[in-house]
Design a protein that fits this description.
The protein is an alpha+beta fold. The protein has helices at 44-56, 106-111, 119-128; strands at residues 4-13, 16-22, 31-32, 35-37, 58-69, 76-89, 98-105. The chain is globular.
Length: 129
């Protein structure tokens, strides 16, 4: 099994966090932050910016790194998570990959923990809000 390095953007605006609803088989319907695999020649930060644009249509600015997680999916060696803010673009997403894109307050995320891709999303948001 390949151990991938991935990166994610936790986009925050006015006290709410942007999540994407997955449309891929193993996690269809579950909520996640925009994330993807680091490509050759790309830094995790660049990956987070690219994936945010691809999955949400938003241009983002990285504020800071929140975490490097190692307990996510079996094929993932590390997941670098960055706090970000939207600086341009508009919500637009590929329907074959993403079902929906929405902002949620911390309280809303707390009540939908079972609908998240993994508990690490809630834990990271909880530790960094």
């Amino acid at each position: 099994m390949t151990s991938l390095i991935k990166a994610a953007a936790l986009i925050q605006e006015n006290g709410a966090f942007l999540l994407v609803q997955e449309n891929v088989a193993r996690v269809r319907g579950r909520w996640n932050w925009p994330q993807g695999t680091v490509k050759d020649g790309e830094t995790p930060e660049q990956t987070a910016i690219r994936e945010a644009k691809e999955e949400t249509g938003l241009d983002i600015k990285i504020e800071r790194r929140l975490a490097i997680l190692t307990d996510t999916f079996p094929d993932t060696k590390e997941l670098h998570v960055y706090l970000a803010t939207a600086v341009g673009g508009g919500i637009f997403f590929p329907k074959d990959e993403i079902l929906d894109v929405q902002y949620f307050t911390f309280e809303q995320i707390e009540h939908m923990k079972e609908k998240l891709v993994g508990e690490w999303i809630f834990n990271t948001i909880s530790e960094n809000r």
